[in-house]
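Section 4.2 – Deliverable D4.2 (structural model, holo form)

The reporting period included a commitment to supply a predicted holo structure for the target in complex with adenosine-5'-triphosphate. Inputs used:
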Amino acid sequence: MSRSFTIKVPCTSSNIGPGFDVVGLSLSLYLTLRVKVDASADNAAPTLAYTGTGASDAPLDPYKNLTTRTALYVLRSNGVSHFPRGVSIDVHNQVPFGRGLGSSGAAVVAGLLLGNTLGNLGLSKDRLLDHALMIERHPDNVTAALMGGFVGSYLLELSPEDREAKDVPLSEVLPEYPPDAGEGWGANPPSPPRGIGHYIRFGWAPEIKVIAIIPHFEVSTAKARGVLPDTYSKSDLIFNLQRLAVLTTALTRSPPDPYLIFQAMQDKVHQPYRKGLIPALPQILASVTPASHPGLLGICLSGAGPTILALATDNQQKIADTICDQFKIEGITCDVEFLQVTNDGAVVVDGDEQ
Ligand SMILES: Nc1ncnc2c1ncn2[C@@H]1O[C@H](COP(=O)(O)OP(=O)(O)OP(=O)(O)O)[C@@H](O)[C@H]1O
Ligand SMILES: N[C@@H](CCO)C(=O)O
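Output (C-alpha cells):
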C-alpha cells in the first residue's frame, strides 16, 4: 500500500522590535515537503532530496537532518520506535537559512507534522507545540509557523518535576542516531510536559504590507543570542513592555497610525546588542522613517537577523531600495521579498499537489 501527503510550513519573523521571544508573524515563504510512503520499498530510513534555497547545505542523512530528527523524536516520544519503511521526502525550500526568517522553526514544525502523520499519532497542534518547545526553546517562531498569523506566546512556569523533564539537554531530545543503529536506538526520549506553550492570535490590519530585506550573509541564532546580556535595567524592560503593549493592538487598527507604530517598534532588549553582528545596523534602522518615506510604519531586525523587516502601507520599493543602499555601503548585497501575512499556519494535505 502506498500513500502520499504534502506538508507546507510558512516562514516567520519574530520579535517585531520590542517583542523579544514573545511575538511571531507568519509570512508567505514556505518550506514544502512532498512525502511518499511505499510499503513495498525496502528503505528503512527515509530518503531526502532538496530543491530551492539552501538545497546544497541541508543534510540528507535523516539522522542528521533537523526535520527528520524532529519527526523521529515525535514518533519515539509517543511510543513508535521507527519510521515506517519506504518513506521518501522531496523538500522544496524558500526560507533562507540563518537570516532571521525562522528557517529552523519551519524545519522543526515540518518535522512535527511529519512524525504525527507518519505515525498516525493524531496529536493536536497544541500538543505538537509542546514537542516543538523541547527543541526550539523560545516559542515565537515555532508558534507562528504552526498556528499562523500574528501571535503572542508565553511559556508556562513549570512544576519542578516538569521543569526537569523540559530541561533535558537538546542532544538527548534530538540525538544524531548512527545510521546503522538498527533496532537498538537507546532509550525513548522523554514525552514533553503538557501545555508548556500558550499563545493568542492578534489581528493584523489588511493595509499593512511586509518587506523583508535579506542580506547575503548568515547570522546563527545561537551566536545572536550569545551576545545578549543575562540581566537588563528596569528602565530598558519598561521601555520594551510599554511599546509591546501598544504595538500588538496598533497593528490591528485600520488605518494604521505610522507615528504610533514606528515608536512602538523601538527596542532596547536585543537589537542594540546585535549591532556588532550586523554591519551598520543602527544606521539601517534609522535610514527610513514615516517622515522620510511616507507609507512606512516601522522597521526592525527580523528574528535574530540579519534580515531587516519593514512594515508599510505604501512606497515599498523605495523603502527597500534605501535599506539595500545602506547595506551596499558596507559591501553587502541583499534580496528583497514583498510578503503577505499568512493565517493558515502549517498544514498537511493528502496527495502531492501544491
Ligand atoms: N529546511 C531545513 N532543513 C534542514 N535544516 C534546516 C532547514 N532550515 C534550517 N535548518 C537548520 O537550521 C539552521 C538555521 O537556524 P538558525 O536558528 O540559526 O536561523 P533561522 O532559524 O533561519 O533564524 P531565526 O531563528 O533568527 O529566525 C540551518 O543552518 C540548518 O542547520
Ligand atoms: N526571538 C529569537 C528569535 C530567533 O529565532 C531571537 O531573537 O533570538
